[in-house]
Specification:
mainly beta, Jelly Rolls, six-stranded antiparallel beta sheet, 7 helices, 24 strands, binds zinc ion
């Protein structure tokens, strides 16, 4: 979203124009009284007659974890969650942005807990989903967090079936012997493109990232009395062998690329004890803590916690035993996703408190570059700087260009 201020003193009162959410305001073009286009002059309003600002909705949020009962779930979710549902089996933890005003995300992050096999199922691609009035299809990826020795997943078929054969195999249950079951263990990554016939076996805890969609077509449900969708499944399934295990790619000392496709990038990050990082969330970004702990801008996070971020930078102060996280985001591979801020966490935290800006922020006005800001800026890479008003009701930040 781009706004133009017609006068240097007529600041935009953005809170009237935008939803009540934190925003990032960045001058992208300025015209001075002498006609020059000096962006730096936009910080000296006296000489500027026109400024164009780019405004982005910012978010760094500790995601809410919703437990979802499922017939194939488990009762004790520890160590992933302390939720104690009243005896009912929980099959999913679904992470959502907190707050009823939050816009829907395009990705869904879940934990899956299985004590029995899930249905043998398939998801539509975007084209098919849209042909039946849905917003998008469902491509998903899994990361195995824990697995019993006999745990397995199914992906694709042993041989290609005709639609009639697939219908028959779903109806008589013989599809359980036609899918390709593979043993999995902790740390495995699996890519499940839309159209792939698949199932998850018992004894697994899996982190799943997927396009936001509930379009699941069940071919077979192990005798559970839930609805099947065999005709839809036949219409969308690639009823033959599928690729299987993903070979992760080490990108840096800390980043391992698990899966990258048109809908999301899925990475694992391994951060050393007491180190400090800046996570670049250019677009919608989810971080799930799978081991260790850390402190982020908004909260302390540990195993089973998730953070949602968008158009923002998440400072991560890693705890004493390090942190392993899964990061999923839209918009293609981000080369500078993770930057070492190079300062011990304690020192950076102290410096942060020395940075003072204006106490209210109602328009596109940058806080002054105070001595404290300069001190901080000299110590930390500039791209990690953010300003936070201590008293503003909204969490406003200004990122210096
Ligand atoms: Zn699925």
């Amino acid at each position: 979203m781009i706004f133009k201020s017609i006068s240097s003193v007529a600041h935009l009162h953005l809170s009237r124009l935008l939803p009540r959410c934190p925003i990032q305001v960045r001058p992208i073009r300025a015209v001075g009284s002498d006609g020059s286009e000096d962006l730096a002059a936009a910080l000296c309003p006296k000489y500027v007659v026109s400024v164009e600002y780019e405004v982005k909705a910012l978010a760094i949020e500790h995601a809410r974890a919703h437990t979802v009962p499922k017939p194939w779930g488990i009762v004790d979710l520890r160590p992933w969650s302390n939720a104690r549902p009243d005896g009912s089996a929980i099959g999913e933890i679904r992470y959502e942005r907190p707050g009823s005003e939050a816009a829907d995300t395009s990705l869904l992050l879940k934990l899956l807990f299985t004590s029995q096999p899930l249905s043998i199922q398939v998801h539509p691609d975007d084209a098919y989903a849209q042909s039946i009035g849905l917003q998008n299809g469902k491509t998903e990826a899994w990361y195995v967090l824990s697995a019993t020795p006999e745990a397995k997943v199914a992906l694709g078929l042993k041989r290609r079936l005709t639609p009639q054969q697939l219908r028959q195999a779903g109806e008589d249950g013989s599809i359980t012997n036609l899918v390709v079951w593979q043993a999995v263990s902790q740390g495995d990554s699996i890519f499940v493109p839309a159209g792939t016939i698949h199932a998850i076996g018992a004894g697994l805890v899996i982190a799943e990232i997927q396009q936001r969609s509930d379009a699941t077509f069940r071919l077979f449900d192990h005798g559970r009395q839930r609805e099947l969708h065999i005709e839809n499944a036949i219409a969308v399934a690639d009823a033959g062998p599928a690729g299987f295990r993903v070979i992760p790619t080490r990108l840096t000392d800390t980043r391992t690329l698990l899966i990258s496709n048109a809908h999301f990038v899925f990475e694992r990050i391994d951060l050393a004890p007491n180190s400090e990082w800046c996570l670049e969330a250019k677009q919608e970004t989810w971080l799930l803590i799978v081991d260790g702990s850390a402190r982020t801008v908004s909260s302390d996070v540990a195993k089973g916690d998730a953070v949602f971020a968008q158009s923002d930078r998440v400072n991560i102060h890693v705890g004493a035993i390090g942190m392993v996280g899964l990061v999923a985001y839209t918009g293609g591979l981000v080369s500078d996703l993770l930057q070492h801020s190079g300062l011990p966490a304690e020192m950076a935290a102290r410096r942060l408190q020395e940075v003072h800006g204006p106490t209210s922020f109602t328009g596109a006005t940058a806080p002054q570059r105070t001595d404290a800001w300069r001190l901080f800026n000299e110590s930390v890479p500039a791209r990690c700087i953010h300003w936070q008003s201590p008293s503003a009701s909204l969490r406003n930040r200004y990122l210096y260009p």
